[in-house]
Design a protein that fits this description.
The complex is a heterodimer of chains A (about 500) and B (about 350).
Chain A (H helix, E strand, L loop, with lengths): L1 H25 L2 H13 L6 H8 L15 H15 L5 H14 L5 H10 L3 H15 L5 H13 L3 H10 L8 H51 L6 H22 L7 H23 L8 H23 L15 E5 L2 E4 H23 L1 H11 L1 H6 L4 H26 L6 H16 L4 H22 L1 H18 L14
Antiparallel strand pairs in A: 1-2
Chain B lengths: L4 H32 L11 H26 L7 H21 L5 H5 L15 H25 L4 H20 L11 E2 L3 E2 L2 E2 L3 H27 L1 H11 L1 H6 L4 H27 L1 E2 L6 H14 L5 H20 L4 H15 L3 H10 L2
Antiparallel strand pairs in B: 1-4, 2-3
Amino acid sequence: MLRLLLTFLLLLPLATQASEGEFFLSAKPAEQARLLETWAAQPDAARLPLLDNLRQGRIAENDTRKLRLNNRLRGLIDNALASHQLLSDNSAIRLASAQQLQKSAQPAQMAFLDRRFAAEPDAAVHAALGLALANLQLGASDPAVRLAAVRLLGETGDPLARTRLEALLQPNAETDAAVRTAAETSLAQVQRKLLVGELLGQAFSGLSLGSILLLAALGLAITFGLLGVINMAHGEMLMLGAYSTYMVQVLLQRYAPGAIEFYPLIALPVAFAVSAGVGMALERTVIRHLYGRPLETLLATWGISLILIQAVRLLFGAQNVEVSNPAWLSGGIQVLPNLVLPYNRLVIIGFALAVVLLTWLLLNRTRLGLNVRAVTQNRNMAACCGVSTGRVDMLAFGLGSGIAGLGGVALSQVGNVGPDLGQSYIIDSFLVVVLGGVGQLAGSLWAAFGLGIANKLLEPQIGAVLGKILILALIILFIQKRPQGLFALKGRVID
Amino acid sequence: MNQPLIVTATRKAGTRVSMAVGAVVVLVLLALPLLSLLPDGHALQVSAYTLTLVGKVLCYAIVALALDLVWGYAGLLSLGHGLFFALGGYAMGMYLMRQAAGDGLPGFMTFLSWSELPWYWAGTQHFAWALCLVVLAPGLLALVFGFFAFRSRIKGVYFSIMTQALTFAGMLLFFRNETGFGGNNGFTSFRTIVGFDIAAQGTRAVLFLLTVGLLLGSLFLCWRLTQSKFGRLLTAVRDAENRLMFCGYDPRGFKLLVWVLSAVLCGLAGALYVPQVGIINPSEMSPTNSIEAAVWVALGGRGTLIGPLLGAGLVNGMKSWFTVAFPEFWLFFLGALFILVTLYLPKGVVGLVKKRSQP
């Protein structure tokens, strides 16, 4: 008996669902619309499958009868579905449905939204719901309700709230004086919050640009500090790293599609090896012969960069190649309504800092690092003490180029990969080296992030180009004060 | 007199031969525009294309000479001379655009629906003011940049990088439409210059002769400068600036003077380049162009006056042949040239010839 009752209870929702579906199918369009509005105002979790099916134009999964839906009904179904999904346990689904309701909610749903708004535990969903509710209340006839809605809108920091408030402040849009003044204060509030979001966003993209500059400039700073030569082909090491990433991606797609998710991780050692190998080969064949003639080295390495660019252009074509983000690097964290931090940029910032840390450990805690520092400070004395300076030069050059290769992997995740990739970063990374001082990791770190943030903060104010020019002028003025860069090694040598 | 007689003879003959070669080259250059005036179909007629090409190379040769003055003699490798060249070109281009537009606005401004000329275009309808701008724009920029750079004793690769960043910034600035210099497309479709048709054979011949004149004039100026005490000071700046300072000299003024002079020479070359080639756009300021000028000087031979001219001629001649015959391989060749010249020809072609003649 008990079992029978339980079975009946279990079947009850199914039965109501089926009968509601049949009823919907047989109703006239006007009746259907009213039905949907009622459902949207009083959601019931058991009705969710039915609404899902309605959205696909049927009343049940294995029912072949077609529903005839017009656009209004479709909109109402979406709205009712969103309303039902607010009951979901998953906060992401609730957030999506709240965002849908911001656009489509009907006055009849107000009571329900009010209840959910009070009960909502997740902050993001709570804010989104508040906005949906306030949107509804703005249409109320009671000025007191409108006033409350306007105040509520002021507390959110959403770009949508700004548009609503601006619409309200249009002439003839709102008659009540109290609501108008409240709307003005709310608008100011919203704008303040949005400004915070925008500034944070700019600072973040500055950090992101800075981390890329850091990866590009770090190797440059090491080789410049050690050998006193500027490697104009350094940007092409970035490019080689990015193209290695592309090659790894293509090869994995062909031979090991299972591992494609982790191709950037596999590309890291490959890119390091390729760039470091090319760098060491260049050092042994060309640059070694030019020590003590920095300006000639500059020209020779420029020639190398021309050859590398043209070689890549012939091999891979002049167009950009496609490097895609794996799933775990796409998307981002929504911090504020107008601020999303993309995962790929966050990962790159962390990666750049990790590379700096590793480089610091390598330079300060290993035998090779000791040798590199010794040769940087006094080449002849180091040679006298038995340091094989030629070998150190080669390894340090390989290290610098390899770091650039790692930077290329990072770049491939945020920008275009083409033969000219290196050229667009090389001048900025030179400026980092000039600003940061020679052979100083701390200097490069501060200079890279400083330049990146200054660039991105100036960009919206005066435009990217004028921003760059201003920064160049500032660097020239800065060098007046400190010709050796931010962090200079103290020396007693004069030529 | 331990040397065999024959060596002394070839050495003496060497200077004599090079003098003779120089004279022949100058004569040919002077004859080219006259030959271009011959009627069509004449066996000796020089085509307008050839004349323009040679005129262009001559302008580049002036740039190379100017660069050699600062790099070969004062040891300051500038990777931004393209900027000064382009500034001179733009100053001349402004005048030519006003000539082409008559009383109206230049075409690109009406396209942007601007109603009046920006302030810095004022007076550019006068040829004399345009000539002043040709000198002033690069000169003042070089003066300001040089003043700050030399004051904080920026030199070596630092100086090279800063000049490169400068020309890069200039290129970005001129690429913008709002800057008022035609953006991407720059200036083109000129019609007349001081009332003469710019495409006419006679005008071309005169412009060519002016270029030859400027080249010979700057060659003479540089020769006098480098032979004088000033030239010795420049060499001292290049070789041991600190020792020069310990001797009681202040090198800043000398460096600034030669730097500004070099920039002005570049500007003049640019001003002659634009009416001959018929276009100026921001890509002239790209760092690539400026650094290519360095290889002209390096190939010809730094610290000599003939070297840069030779280098500019050789590289540009090869460029116009290569880009027609094997366009994909020009960059390989240019890159290899950069490497081989720095590795094996530190003194350039002139150094090679000198070594041959004095074993």
